[in-house]
Amino acid sequence: MNWKKWISIAAAVCLAVTAVPMRAVAQEELLQEKMLEEIKEEIKEELKEEKEEPKEEKEELKEEKEELKEEKEEKEKLQEQSDEKTEPQEESKKELPKGISLLMEEENSTAVSENEAADFEGEGTAESPYLIEDVDDLKKLAEKVNGGTTYEKTYFKLTANIDLKNEEWTPIGTKVYVGEFGQPESRYFQGTFDGDGHQIANLTITGRNEYVGLFGYVRNATIQNCNVAGEVSGYNFAGGIVGAVDGKTNNILNCSFQGNVTGNMYVGGIVGQVQNQCEVSSCYAIGTVHGGNDKVGGIAGEGRGAIKNCYVLADVSASGKFAGGITGDTYNLAIENCYYSGMVSASGSAGGIVGNAWGGTIKNCVSLAESVTGSNANRIVGYNYNATLTDNYAWDGTTINGNPVSADDAGWVNGAALTYTNGELSEQFSDIFKDTDSAWDFTDNGLPILKNVGGVQFSELPKCMTGVGFDGFGIKTNPYLIEDVEDLKLLAKKVNGGTTYEKTYFKQTADIDLNNEPWTPIGTVIVINNGKDARPFKGTFDGDGYKITNLKVTGNSNNAGLFGYTQDATIKNCNVTGEVSGSSDVGGIVGNADGKTQILSCSFRGDVTGEDSYIGGIAGSARGTIKNCYALADVTASFVDAGGIAGYAYHVTIENCYYSGNVSAGNDAGGIAGFASGSTIKNCVSLAKSVTGSENVNRILGDVSKVENVTLTSNYGYNRTKLVVYEKEDYADGKDEKDGTNVFVSAGKLMTDVQKGEVFAWTGFDKDIWDIPTKAGKLPSLQKGTYPDLPDLPSKDLTIDKTPQHFTTKNIGNGFVVKVLSPTEGIGNTPFEVQYRLHDTTDEWASAVPNTAGTYDVKITRAADGDINPFACEIPEGLVLTKKRSSSSGAATQTYTAQFDTNGGSAVDKVKTDKNGKIERPADPTKEGYIFVGWYSDSKLTKPFDFSAELTANSTLYAKWKENNEIILTIGSRKISVFGREIQNDVAPKIVNDRTMLPIRIVAESLGGTVTWNGELQRVTIQKGADVILITIGADTAYVNGTAVKLDAAAFVENGRTYLPLRFISETLGAQVAWNEAEKTVTITK
Description:
Radius of gyration: 38 Å
Oligomer: single chain
Helix content: 10-25%
Shape: globular
Strand content: 35-45%
């Protein structure tokens, strides 16, 4: 087909259109459409002619000359028409005509259109790349590539850090299946993407899709300077940076991935599979890499091309064949100057560097693997088929299938020995990585790190070599583990020695008892040569809800607490009890929280004392954020600034916190903060027993800066907190924002209005973080914790003359109420409740109002004040407004009707009062998926209805429900209650080794998981979101996201049914499990 003609015509039409004035646009569009139809018809004719016998060459040349002549004449004609038009419109030059665009699309042009260019700032060239400025730009790139735009030879550049916020990510590039028969169609990215050293955080990919990673599928592309952190889970072709690479010219340069990668086959920390040729250079991966089948590697699952100057700190595991610390499987791959640290395991070939090597070279590589496990396992290469190995080394402590092995020479599968003795590495390590002209920064007796790669790199040798250190990898998804008191002491030693652990993650894994031994706080400021040297902790410490008990910090040093000095750190989920004393900057959790330190979901119980200033229950001095914390502690500052939560609050937000205890300072004392400047205190509750000082004494905030504003919003203070100023006691009226709004305590509950029965709702306290108590006498707890007891709070003594003239009665309904007339200060504004009993009887006190004349004992209970001695009060006959009910008089008794609003439950019929004025409790309604709580007399469901009391008016009662999120099983019974529905299972649960075993599918799927069975491998896979559990029949070890977990009871098959450990599966899927010994039942709460 001769396309020259149509391209020329297209160009001519473009030229003509650019000169069309606005009033002629419609006419020109009609002309374009007509010409397009003519062009299409002529194309059809030419296609038909091409099928016929070709003409002689001379005739073809003649025809081409005629065509060129026609084209020239048509161009001149169109130009003449254009010249006759009015002046051209500039806007018309910006877009191609519709017909020409369609022709170009039909030609599958790879050129980037103006519309595509408009999606990004820049020009897409090496000199002026398209700019990826935010998450929307990154999503747009994925959308365009997955829609078919390859961006071949086009350049992109990331201009800022991007937080993907753990939202599900659609990889850039994929393979789709189209047509009636599902033909595969690749949607590659074929350009250059430069991350420019920026960080892409919280990448999340879940499910079982293929081609997953930040990039799913690339061809002849370059991905460079990208640093990614997150979780990637898919099926085949899964990588932290790229799922799969195709083409002959690919580069992945200066990239890092920190997190977990999980898939089936072709799974790698950086790239899942290299299908053709690719150079991976100066890259590292930290975390875990796991494949349900085979070809799993720390850098690449399967590799071809070259991997140079890379390292991996990760556990790498394959349930099938081929796992390696750098690559699982290779084909003519050159690996050079790489090292690995972690544990490698596979059912087949496993190696510290390569699992299975087909040809290629492996040179100057070091394995520091703790262990390698597999049917063909070696320290360097599991199985070697004609690969050339040169100058490779392995730590001599590596175990192979649980056993030590002898070293080979440096050119074989186990490598030569590398030793760590008396704190020093043997010289082979430095020989490879110490070259100053190389890609590496080398630390003596430490791990080398890459010079030009971002992310967070670690130089500490692994614990398995040194015997000292932390398990884990120090990243968000695989933090360093604080497993016991020795780990916590080591952290203090390291930080106080100068290691800041900036951007490093720690996680507590068990309760820790410090046994009241003198504690050295984590982080400090020391004086050297009359100068101060700050040694802050800058990482993230997650207590994970566990306890640290019997903390004891003594002396008069500054910066005292569990943590002494932090800077831009995050301390969360820590629950500490103990005693902390020092001079200045003393806190239960952190003494001096500097920079933008965040203290989240922490608690402290005990005493905090400072000989000087800035003393707080949570933090002595604070900048940054304190949120969702509580302190039950006495806090004392000998000089200034003491607060129940923070002593000195500078540019800090304190939110959703509560405190109870006694606060004392020379000046500036508050139930939440002593002094604040440029700060916000929001939605906090002070239940302080007393706040004491010489001046600036308040229930919420002692004093505020005269320079910078302080915002106080929605804070509450206990109405009977004693404010002691110069030894004179007083009580706040709740009108000053530094005191907060009044809250009361009645019958063990925090109330906003005692007379109205309004319970304090703890509004704003996130229910995903806090457990709000329903029982009296308790305070909110943080998740995983127990409800703290409501402390014994003080009351103001009442002095009431008990003679009747100080009280009067007031008619209400069938009886009377008592109104206090005493002029005693504060009496008239303070809530109280009244109870009655007949005088000179031993009947129970009742709150119901008497409805007949007589002499009654009256008892007044003031909020939090205790009982007032009873006094006698005579009720005159005239107060009886309705006749007393009598079953013997035969007098007619007024009846009332109660109707029932079941709030979506089954219907309940109306009920009328009986002869005693009471209603009979109906049968409980039912509602699928919910448990009936009871009947309430108000639609807000705050006042339970008492069926033993008389009904005095026609009323509506309201049903209260709670969601049924429980699965209940009984040992020996096949009946299972699943969220209120009874299901008959085919077998009953049984107990093996004190563990409940059951075919798990019904439970796992009810908890949101999926269950698959691999008969060949005798393995069960349970997946929920990004979490994957692997259990093999007969094995006492399971794998959760690639991490080995010891089982108390191994899975087994009986009568064709697979039995798995119920508690282990349920808790791993996020449920809580409770055992009732008496009833032999297991309750699983979702």
